[in-house]
Please model this.
Amino acid sequence: MTNVLTNTLKNRQYVFAARPEDEATAGCFGQVETVLPALKPGQILCRNLWLSVDPYLRLKMHDRESYTPPLQIGEAIPGNSVAQVVTSADPAFEAGDMVAISGGWQEYAVVRAAHAKRVDPALSRPQSWLGALGMTGFTAYGGLLSIGQPKAGETVVVSAAAGAVGSLVGQIARQLGCRVVGIAGGPEKCARVVADFGFDACVDYRAEGFAGALAAACPKGVDVYFENVGGKVAAAVMPLLNMFARIPVCGLISQYDGQSGTDPKALEEFMRWVLVRRLTLRGFIVYDLYQNHPEFTDTMAGWLRSGAIREEFNLHSGFDQVVPAFLGMLKGAGFGKTLVQIAEPV
Ligand code: NDP
Model:
């Protein structure tokens, strides 16, 4: 019976259509209609409801070594989603259950039940499994605690502070008693980072005098710099770092979409600060750290429930809006975590 259902459902899916030479465009993506594979024991058929669009996808569009293999032309676009089970060939789930999965940019997905995470409505709204309770939230929490190791009274600076990961990093650091300074693009975003997320200050990296304004916002220097951006933003933070400061290197988004101009002196200068200030710098990918923090879901759900941490969603609607939402996120069009709702739960 399940095979009949998967064979008759039409599934729209985004595929990689062209590798960008510079900035990504809508022409890099195509839509195809697929026939879903028949369910095997241990699998579930899910209907995607909310799709996550994430910067790492832009890294996969380059044909170069990264922590994730490059996309090949014609390949389905991957991504996390919150979905509802349509039919199940595994005793762990039944039709109607809400799950967080690697569902991809498509309407339906067949996945292994063992890879699906049950969405517990008692903990938070379903979208949170793509935000604070999902990969995004754990990136902020794990990277900050495991590598940043902030202590009460220290100054924590985070770039891309109005975005999904950055907004959570700052709020977690505030919970730990730190002074928190964000860096974001534009005066309105910066004002909202302070007003909505409770940062102590937020500095506009696009404004004249950015480096001076950042120094003024960090009168005691910087003990932890949570790196999301790289480039000129990182260069402005470097001279402010205190002795033995820690830098969790989470992302370098200024380099993803086309190439940022490289100053040949920048690496020399950077290494000089690493030595002189005895900096600890460690890159991480979210899954490196999962085993360090079994308390994460309970802690984050508690913060969300109490209002100590606030989630903002930059919500788009409709399957045709997935690519515009992704391209807009890369350019800083939204505030908070960018999601696309493509169907209503039933
Ligand atoms: P965001 O929601 O923060 O969206 C990306 C933001 O990056 C934009 O809103 C924009 O904000 C900012 N940005 C874009 N281009 C530039 C630029 N040239 N200079 C400065 N800022 C820029 O995305 P996420 O929170 O999902 O991701 C943030 C970072 O975390 C990324 O680098 C991503 O790769 C990384 N990441 C790493 C993970 C890991 O496992 N290591 C996991 C998840 C994310 P603005 O308007 O302020 O310019």
Notes: The radius of gyration is 21 Å. The mean pLDDT is 95.
